[in-house]
Amino acid sequence: MVCRAGSVAFLIWCIIPLATAIISSFGGASPHEAIESFFTNSSSEGRGHTNNWAVLVCASRYWFNYRHMANALGMYRSVKRLGIPDSNIILMLADDAACNPRNKFPATVYANPGRLLDLYGENIEVDYRGYEVTVENFIRVLTGRVEASVPRSKRLLSDERSNILVYMTGHGGNEFLKFQDNEEISAFDIADAFEQMYHEIFFMIDTCQANTLYSKLYSPNILATGSSDLGENSYSYENDDEIGVSVIDSYTHFVLEYLEGINKTSQATMQDFFDLYDPSIIKSTAGVRSDLFTTRSAAQTLITDFFGGVAQVEVLEEEAMAGLGVDEENRVHTEGVTILPDSSQPARSPSHSRDYRSSRKEGLCYFLATRSVHLDLVHLTPGLVVGSTLAPSLGCFCTTPAKATWSWFHPATATPFERCYDNHLKR
Amino acid sequence: TCHIRVVFQVQQLFFPELFAFLQLRLPIDISLKSCPSHATLVPQILSEFTSWTNSHNDRCGHLDLHLVNKSDTSSYLGTASRYSVKLGCCRFTCANGHPEITLSDRNMQLGIPKEGIRASDVVRTLEDLLIPHVPSVQAQFSPRYRLAFSLLNEDAAVGGAASSWAIEDAIDGYLTPTLTELSIVHNFTIESQVQYHAPLAFEPSPGSRTVADSEWKGYELDQDELKTFINSAEWTLASSVNNDIVLHFILFVPTHSRRPLWVLKPDGTRSSTNAFIIPQWGGVAIEYLSARDRAHPFAIFRSQLHSLLGVPSVPLNIAVKSDSVLSAWQLDALLRRRGVENTKGTIEALNSIMKLADRISNMPVRVDVRGDVLGALDALDDVHTHRLSSASLLSRSSEALTLSSRAFFNPGMLAMLYFPVEHKYAVYTPLFAPVSVPLLVATIKEIRAWRQERRKKLGGDAKRDSGGEASTDN
């Protein structure tokens, strides 16, 4: 009797969780009802955005996924060049390719087979690195629900007038993206995460079957594009024989090539960019989703609205200042600013005690020129600046793959190396 | 920690009352007095005002405006904001038939010129002062702001750059009065720095306009260049020690070879202040570094700060007689507007919390979220039911906004990850199937055995009942 009762009880105890699981799967509310994104003030339509944010995610680790890290770093560099400051960029790299023991060129990440441009450089800020790149952290960043102890640089502090660029790359499949090889994020989670305050979002994905990842979005004012369709793979672009792995994906390579032709004041629109999609170049069918992007069309949206940090400005006039509490007694004829004496004699350029803010432009050459005392000629590498140390501020010899030029400069003029770099290497 | 399901309580208790909160009505009394020679204007102004308030409900729906004739004292409400308008004759020559308007504290003196004025002009002036337009550059509301002043030299290496500035005196002289007045709205922290090398990311175009003095040809920045002026990649502008909103104020000193650097207005002419505001971010002033007659940079910063904080500007034809920087009309309008915006924000946040809890039915809501929501509701209750002065309206509504945002952005209020039905089956079946098969088989066997026993028992009873001695094996 006890035996029977015991076995029946045990059976019931086992069945109940299974039953509840089945019942809840039928009765549970579907989590993706359409919910209007709150805080998008209806009166802000017609007013543009005033700040830009970018969330760039590389979700795969290990050396053979070098190209995904190069993808994310390439986008980071382009977005920074077009004006979004580091404080407004959240860069998530799941692994460290630059300092990987298998990297033959340590502290560098290249995105093209000739190793022409180092994306890692000396001035990047990676906000989430290594094992911190998880699905939970990504969703917490996008929804703003981070712990109180998370520092400011790891938060997405967008408001209702921010345009956000979300770029994700890694391995993916039908409605999912793989994070760190042990978990995945589904298209439904991404759709639910886009409810934070924003003005407009541009969602760009470079994975296999990427177009499925944006199929479940429902929040308004989102423009999405992916690198390949359902059932298609996204392919890498080229291998570098010395690094030993593929260095960039073809879709991201296409995007970065296009962005190299854009500068901060460009008037190119998103529709121009989408019109250039060519499956034979990208090697997969890239798709666009714009049905949620209703306040304006892609043809009225500039590339720099998402990729650049360009804001509208308002010029203050004195008459306007009068209404704000400024009156006659505020006019001054003297300065409240102390000026250094105007040197009639050009100052000697202190070549090794100058405090350059933009240290990333000095690189190898500055290091050599300021430290080597008996070096006569520094060897030439494509794109480097050379100075002879017998006459340390004599001139610079710059080479690019296309040409080699020599420029002289006067010791009094500032920033010799920067000028050379700017003149000859700036695209 | 204790996870308490308070979601249902929130929905049932407070949902209907939240809609009542949308009817915020702040009472404002304006008394109108006129000198005998213009007594006929008074009824015209009263009727014009009433028709305007009725037709513009979207702008003044949150205000309970009463414009009364001074002689009628019975309609004074308890804690309403009271203003007075006195119509008089123009004392000095009123140029071009414009009235002479002076503000002092909460009183407005209108000097009417000989030609008379229209009632609609008076009503429009009142509208500009009581419900001013929101400046589009207004920054997001925060109870604390960090003001970061930077003196940036484009390149100090060539000499002739600014090595320091008398910032403490300037702040004391220009900013401290207004910051003290605005301290009921926000708390301010000030930081400052000097940088000696802050290059621009582009080359400004040389000045094209020929001026009489060719020395002032200089370089110019047009609208496109102004938009990309801030070289965020290379300039370090503010410390980011906490999550306060930072308003940046930059005094930029161009390098020796690029002086003077002019800022162009959208129509192409040179700006007289050589300064511009970047919405929600801060302001930039470009230094002439000459003895030219110009406004002090900190006066420019002060007016930029006012725009960024949303302080309404007094219309140009109105003179202000006041010891303080801001007139009472401006401060009241700012407090009212920020209070109403905060209340709206709180209601939106609370509605969103309810929708979120509704959408994810098995998400536990923590005790601290419950505390924040109840605190926000208390503050909202205060705002709506008690007649608060403008200052306490602002502080309570800002408390409500902080609490409701903190509740909504609480790290625990995260949607659980989505698992498709197929995943659930795929996970649970290998766990339960191997266990349940033997159990099921055992159950069936037990049931069969029990049935057989029952049949046997019934059969045995039947045999006994039907008589006959059962053979017993003794």
From TrEMBL, chain A:
Keyword Signal: yes
Region listing for Disordered, in residue ranges: 338-357
Highest taxon in the source lineage: Eukaryota
Positions annotated as active site in the UniProt record: 171, 208 (nucleophile)
MF GO annotations: GPI-anchor transamidase activity
GO BP annotation list: attachment of GPI anchor to protein; GPI anchor biosynthetic process; proteolysis
Ranges annotated as biased composition (Polar residues): 341-350
Alphabetic keyword roster: GPI-anchor biosynthesis, Signal
Any one GO cellular component localisation term in the record: GPI-anchor transamidase complex
Involved pathway(s): Glycolipid biosynthesis; glycosylphosphatidylinositol-anchor biosynthesis
Signal peptide: 1-21
Family that this chain belongs to: Belongs to the peptidase C13 family.
Protein name: GPI-anchor transamidase
UniProtKB/TrEMBL annotation, chain B:
Domain of life of the source: Eukaryota
Signal peptide: none
Pfam families xrefs: PIG-S
Annotated region (Disordered), positions in chain: 455-474
Record key words, sorted: Endoplasmic reticulum, Glycoprotein, GPI-anchor biosynthesis, Membrane, Transmembrane, Transmembrane helix
Feature: compositional bias, Basic and acidic residues: 455-467
UniProt pathway: Glycolipid biosynthesis; glycosylphosphatidylinositol-anchor biosynthesis
Keyword field contains Transport: no
Membrane topology classification: Multi-pass membrane protein
Main location: endoplasmic reticulum
Subcellular locations according to the entry: Endoplasmic reticulum membrane
InterPro entries: PtdIno-glycan_biosynth_class_S
One GO CC term on file: GPI-anchor transamidase complex
GO biological process annotation, one example: GPI anchor biosynthetic process
Family: Belongs to the PIGS family.
Protein name in UniProt: GPI transamidase component PIG-S
